[in-house]
# Entry
Amino acid sequence: MRIIDTNATLGYVIGRTEPPDTEEELIHKMDIAGVESAVAWHSRSAGQVMPGNEDMQAIADASSGRIKACWVLHPYMDGVQMPKPEDLMMLLKAKRPAAVRLLPSTGGYLLNDFYCGELMAILSELRLPVFIDFRKDLINPLEEIPRVAELYPQIPFVLTDACHTSSMLVWSLLRKRKNVYIPVSYMCGAEELGQLVNTFGPEHFLFGSSDGNVQGGALGLVYHGKFSQQAKEMIFSSNWERLQEDIRWEL
Amino acid sequence: MGIVSEFKEGRPVPVPVIDTHTHLFEWAKNGLHQGIRTTAETINLMDDLGVDAIVTSPMVMSTGDSNLANSQTVEAMAEYPGRVYGNLVVTPHDGASGVKEIIRRYSGIEGFVAMKILTGYHGSPTRSEFAYALSFAQECGCPITFHYWENERITHESVAEILEKYPRLKVILAHQGGGVRHQTLKTAELMRQCDRLYIDTCGSLWNRLGMDEIAEVVGADRMCFGSDIFYLDPRFEIGRIVFSGMTEESMKKIFAENYLRLLEGSQLGKIRFDLK
# Structure
């Protein structure tokens, strides 16, 4: 089966005194785990937005298709830290990142329409997948995701770090919002992934590790999951490919 | 067929597997959707994955009620002999005399093969209430597991102090000795100094070291498979091992052989199952 890791990370890990994840290590881990390609963001972008994105794009461009770029974007598009809206749209269309990532908590902004409306309008027009951290300690994203997902139904929102301790929230979100997606990496309560897939359909789930070293855990959850072979193929690759096909670069 | 290919095809792990870090009975805390609630469901999952036996400590031990936790273990062991074994658990809540009484009450029950204390949640292993339990584990030769997670009230220094004070005690540090990379590396240093110290693999979600890399620094013969079932899905931890690129020989050690070796010479119960 073809496997695409939709949620890999490169660079230093924020908050940890550990060596950075490099593209060479990521590709090595992908080779061991049998992962064809990975969508990665670079942690430098958390503090230096566009230079970090340029780094990430350069890594992707040099990877012979093994790594795709996920850009970090901030909502305050003043032409300094972030390009102005019209410039951003042109840049995105020119560079075609596979996805974008918003970091409202570490970025210090609120994930709502007042602060993020202009950016969301661009992402909605393009239908670009948007990754958002969904850790329980990040209260603002947890509160706002139901609202922004309703306001922008064309945006696929991918909730990274959704895990067994966010289960109560994930089940409710999937029941009420169609455009919410979960990378399977940490969704590892006992038998939970199978129950989620069989309740809400496999189309809501993506293979995503968050870190190359955790790919094996996510592989175990999917390969041995109590759901159909077709569902496994969807989670491993075709759900993500469908989201990529839906991006409207030609507008 | 090898372990990787069998598991990829959705078949049980084809070598003996003892899950040394498990929990049973209902526990609806921390935002958890408890996908399985009964021991029977746990057994079904074990059958699917090829887990021969589990060693368990009910989650209720975290409240301090060691009597309830051990009695739940007795119930599960009676229902599934040969599949469910117990960690005799003690907590500091009832004081040193309470610890003694719990050990007296449960240590003669055959299915208890090891011990566990919830260090971190319940403080340092050096606290006086644990002293009798540590002496008991040393004298009867069974391993004792210490819960160990980053930023909790247990340190490598306190573990080192215990290992020095009890020179024959066999300790398993849960969660790869701290759950994250730098803690595991620090644990590895300690393991190099003391061959009675082991780790389990349980709850490795946040550890950026691959299982192959952990095996490189601590040795594959010092790791015991643990999954945190029902809290976590064993598929995750099995996948971390099976898809790490390590040899089948290393996997076999981690899945069962190391733990069985740890139980050798113990006066507590023994794990008995028909090896695959």
Remarks:
- The mean pLDDT of chain A is 92.
